[in-house]
Amino acid sequence: MNPHLDKLHPYPFEKLRQLFAGVTPNPEYAAISLGIGEPKHPTPAFIQKALAHGVAGLANYPSTAGTDALRGAIAGWLERRYGVPALNPATQVLPVNGSREALFGIAHCVIDASRPAPLIVCPNPFYQIYEGAAYLAGAEPYFVNSEPGRNFGCDYASVPADIWPRVQLLYLCTPGNPTGATLSLEDWKQLFALSDRYGFVIAADECYSEIYHTSAAPLGALEAAHQLGRSGGETPYARLIVFSSLSKRSNVPGMRSGFVAGDPAVIRKFLLYRTYCGGAMAPPVQAASIAAWGDETHVQENRVKYREKFALVTPLLKEVMDVELPDAGFYLWADVRRSGLSDTEFARRLYAEYNVTVLPGSYLARDAHGINPGSGRIRMALVAEVDEGVEAAQRIVQFCKSLKSL
């Protein structure tokens, strides 16, 4: 067997299952899960209709590159959303079966394991796919801790100078999972300068880009590159690729539809890799995806729902824990140390006593540079409808107040 498999950590939800083993939750309460970031808002009817009408295409093998119409729809959305020059749909856009498989696969395409001790830089806490991709590509992850004082941004200037020459790929997530933090133009300027100097590829995971809580949409990687003069010339978007998905934007996590876009040289190699993997998107999913990328009304309505939830839930929770409205995304990243419990004990007791599931922050991070930046925190996914989110918050407040009365 591949020895790299032995380096993989259990997935956070497997750790959570083990944490809850033997616990019978209080039967007085119906179960509410804030543990998994799975959108629960209804899938728009027009997307369902387009999916059903697309079944005629099942009689054909789909191309890994997708149809011209799908790539054109994605390129059109990128141009409208980020104000970037029109990307070439044939060379700069590639549909994928959800961003997860693409984020994993890109490491196998980029990493040259023949070079000594290759590294992949990851934020910490992080989406665990980044770590698994690093190990199975023959590299090692190098974690850069998020810092509360930087609005949970990572200080890449803190990375030692002798690390960067070994870096071949840098994963980042903006808006971040679990913190909701976004990158500024100055952050991007710094990262592009490092990429230019050391030659590594930047993989920007932007799956939460359409859920934000202010009037200003988060700055995208392609948008930043364009503003910094990196979208044209012989090497447009040099060593930059972005990953996005319809799962959160359009409430279709089961459809498994996303895209990769950016540097045509990287896209060309990634298409070759995915052709061998059999990573073609099913024709009905392509048809539904075209419809979804072409409509913004349902995205705006979805965003209103999240804003309503966060506006109601965040003030309730602030009574009993340190939590702030994030820049974007559908998570709350809360410090629960005021409770006097560790993040794991907090999650276990909350589940046992109030039947609410949250994810311990330490499960989403690794010990790095002397700390685990997720320790003492919990991640709450506000993915259900408003009433359920408010009910969960009220139970959490009751739980925390009960601790203080002991």
Key attributes of the depicted protein:
EC 2.6.1.17, single chain, pyridoxal phosphate binding, LL-DAP_aminotransferase, 406 residues, 8-stranded mixed sheet, 2 domains, 13 strands, Aspartate Aminotransferase, domain 2, succinyldiaminopimelate transaminase activity, 3-stranded antiparallel sheet, alpha/beta, Aspartate Aminotransferase, domain 1
Overview of this protein structure:
By secondary structure, the protein is of the alpha/beta class. The protein has two domains: 148 residues, Alpha-Beta Complex (Aspartate Aminotransferase, domain 1), CATH 3.90.1150; 249 residues, Type I PLP-dependent aspartate aminotransferase-like (Major domain) (Aspartate Aminotransferase, domain 2, 3-Layer(aba) Sandwich), CATH 3.40.640. The protein is built from 13 helices and 13 strands. The strands form three sheets. Strands 2-9-8-7-6-3-4-5 form an eight-stranded mixed sheet, with helices on both faces. Strands 10-13-12 form a three-stranded antiparallel sheet. Strands 1-11 form a two-stranded parallel sheet. α2 runs antiparallel to α10, α3 runs parallel beside α10 and α11 packs parallel to α13. The longest helix has 22 residues. The model has no long low-confidence stretch (mean pLDDT 96).
